[in-house]
Specification:
Length: 399
Amino acid sequence: MVQVKDLTELKLEDLWREVKWDEEDWWGDVKEETLRLVKRLLEGVMEGELLEQLRAGRYRRTEVRRGYRNGYRPRSLLIQLGLIEHLRVPRDRQGQYQPTVIGRYQHYQGRVNDLIREMFLAGVSTRRVGEVLLPVLGEAPSPQTVSRVARSLDAEVQRFHNRPLSDHYLYLLLDGITLKVKGALGSKKRLVLCAYGITPDGRREIVSFRQATAESEAQWEAFLQDMYQRGLEGKSLALMVTDGNPGLCRALDLVYPYVPRQRCWVHKMRNVASKLPKKVEKACLEGAKAIYQAPNRREAAVRFRDWAYQWRSSQPKAVACLETDLDELLSFLSCPKSHRRKVRTTNAIERAFREIRRRTRPMSCFQNQASVNRIIYAVINHLNSSWKEKPIPQFTHFA
């Protein structure tokens, strides 16, 4: 309440502050009292319903009795006015009583659950969901409530893993991301293998993901076979882009042996840099960059020979590192010019991984494998939805 000595000293903002304070205080009291009245009303109606069902009041012996009371169960109920906590719902011993009065509010509760679910799918953290919904609902759903709603995503995750896949992708990027998951003896690293597809018209999406214990040949093969059996046979694939993981390369030889492969230039340049002393690293890498900037494969080969001639005698390991995979490093030059920058590296899928890390950073460690699937699916669903109407501009026409 604004305190003033003289009414003539009151300013407009002082009067408004006083009116607003009184209004908020008054509405808070009315809302709280109304929720108490609604709670008593609902509890009275439920008592009447149970009495009608049992055909007997408390401690009464009658010939028409149809059952016996069994205390109460507490529950919370969200209505348009706010959250009613500790509502006493009566029970009968046979468990047959279902309060019809609460059912009238289930539609509203269902809409709130849908809202929580959509926010979770959009990448909002479990704790942040409550903070965001507080101004809307007047009460913040607890993290436990959000987690319960999030668990309903398990069926959607299963449908995502089992859905048929189209074979219209032009490029497929493959990589994995590491997360921590709690185990019986402490946290363990868990890999999530991912496939990122690009269609001829520039539509992109995370096609599939699966958890694995390592990027081994067997686990990559299982991941690729799963996509193949669901319809992604690779008949339209012009290129598959990888980071050069040996297990992945061997798995590709088994599942997609006839699809050309592109080795990621970013990963290869890191490998080359690791074999160079700091004093020559910048100059050597600048020369190597000129190779992938060549307009065609023939010019790239010329530039490589010039670069190798300059550095082979002083840095033979760096030159050999690039030379070993040169053919796969230059595969992207057979693609249209407007596509090349997008497919010469795995940067596109790495950017998706950054969004996953941003979403999972506050968690530090997942509770179990199911929670990993839910979070990864939530982020992927959000990314795929945002990309649906935003094709890559360079793919709208062939250069």
